[in-house]
Design a protein that fits this description.
about 325 residues, three-stranded antiparallel beta sheet, elongated
Amino acid sequence: MARRAPGKHYRKGLTIIDAVGLFADDAAAEAWFVEQRWPDGVHCPACNATDIQTRRTRKPQPYRCNACRKDFSVKTGSIMHGSKLPLKTWGMAMYLLATGLKGTSSLKLHRDLGITQKSAWHLAHRIRKTWEADASPFEGPVEADESHFGGLEQNKPEHRKLHAGRGTVGKTAVAGVKDRTTNRISAAVVPDTTGATLKGFVRERTQPDAMVYTDDATAYQGLPHHASVTHRVGQWVDGLAHTNGLESFWSMMKRGYHGTYHKMSPKHLDRYVGEFEGRHNQRPADTLDQMRRMVRGMDGKRLTYGALTQANGLPSGARRV
């Protein structure tokens, strides 16, 4: 009897040796990024024109648009805009984040890529934005569930404890839905777990006639096409009703929380959620295809270090892990 191969055995992976060869130097890395960003030929990021002049001197930029007269490079108008990091560093960082199922910390990126921890932290958050996607509502059937992320009250210093007596106190809520047909997940930070919030979250991400399976939380009661299981009495499956797919996703993300990142700031949590969601949704694809999609997800996005730190209420030079 043949044994079943482990994991996503049908995928074509990319060894770290092959990845190093792919981004052996900046010229090779630039050629790869240009091919992925503009597979039909170089386009101007400003006006989308294709009448492009390539400069031999590559100064002040390697390309010039003959339509709008603007100079640009493959970094211009993307999440890499203004970055002084070499393209080979960007390529290897994308590889590490794409293949690290439980995430890759900024300290590991700092050591593996030979850049400062601050640069690695900023680099990782910019790459996480490449997984952002405007997905159409799921047709269903779907699973819906919520989870909480944050430190345990018992591990906090006394002046930070809320003494509210609940296991989720002081933690940030994250809601998610999983489409059983496509295996795709859509998750995001939510302000609370009230019925109005969670039902609104489900309606926004599913078709009106989609069948929704949840646990027995009262917040989901009232959905038009709905069945549930009662976890508090040990009922995990009732026919087609269960949330095991989403529970697996929460488990993977919490392994990343506790084993890799150790802390996810509430003000940055949405990007970490997007990272695990994006990696889950792209996981059936070959590793190179995942990285190609990440490059296409860079277009038109920016996240400066100032905006990143000020959004967290920190001075722009503050260090983050």
